[in-house]
Design a protein that fits this description.
Layout lengths: L1 E4 L23 H15 L5 E4 L13 H8 L5 E5 L6 H9 L11 E4 L2 E6 L2 E6 L11 E5 L12 E3 L20 E2 L3 H15 L1
Parallel strand pairs: 1-2, 2-3, 3-4, 6-7, 7-8
Antiparallel strand pairs: 1-9, 5-6
Length: about 200
């Protein structure tokens, strides 16, 4: 199963509390970090693949905190394919490459892409990017993205899969905080968003 997530922002203390940009209703960074792990592992199994669309962490010590970030990433189930966000450095990705814990079959746990990835499922092409794309008129093409946290692009084909994304509210069964969105739920979100945009016109 393929899953999608963005903007986990491990260690980002400025996001804690009620706010319009990325409401993280936790008392401490440790509580937020742990829930990101618990939510992820509640849905992702070891054989699954998760596309992380950028902004993994914002450690207050920058590169000196890479080991602490890795300690959380090691706890996450599945293979993780990272797409670079504006808060992800190449030095961070290099550190993860050099300290990849590997999967049970001996293959790498981590994979990295600078700009984006194209995947196909459910008869659609999906452009996976950190920043939302303006696709224009499309036929069976959608953009899965992050970056804008608790905001949504007013475009049906642009689906925010971030941890804080309002698109998650289209799901009748609420996902736990930190849970990636499965490939089976993406069409559900897409249909509901398209209907809402049509209704608001």
């Amino acid at each position: 199963m393929k899953y999608f997530i963005s903007d986990t922002h491990y260690f980002h203390a400025n996001l804690l509390g009620a706010n319009d940009f990325a409401p993280r209703l936790f008392d401490t960074v440790d509580a937020m970090n742990q829930q990101l792990v618990v939510g992820w592992n509640a849905v992702v199994k070891e054989h699954d693949v998760v596309y992380h669309l950028g902004d993994v962490a914002m450690h207050p010590q920058y590169e000196r905190g890479n080991g602490e970030v890795l300690a959380y990433l090691r706890q996450l189930n599945g293979k993780i394919i990272f797409i670079k966000g504006n808060h992800d450095s190449r030095a961070f990705f290099k550190y993860l490459t050099e300290n990849d814990p590997g999967l049970a079959d001996g293959s790498p746990k981590f994979e990295f892409h600078d700009v984006g990835v194209l995947v196909k499922f459910n008869h659609f092409q999906y452009y996976l990017t950190h920043y939302p794309m303006l696709l224009g008129q499309t036929n069976n093409i959608r953009n899965l993205h992050g970056h804008i946290h608790h905001y949504s692009m007013p475009i049906a084909e642009d689906i925010n899969v971030g941890v804080d994304a309002p698109e998650r509210d289209f799901l009748t069964e609420k996902l736990p905080f930190g849970a990636p969105i499965s490939e089976n739920l993406i069409p559900v979100i897409a249909a509901a968003k398209e209907e809402e945009i049509r209704r608001l016109k």
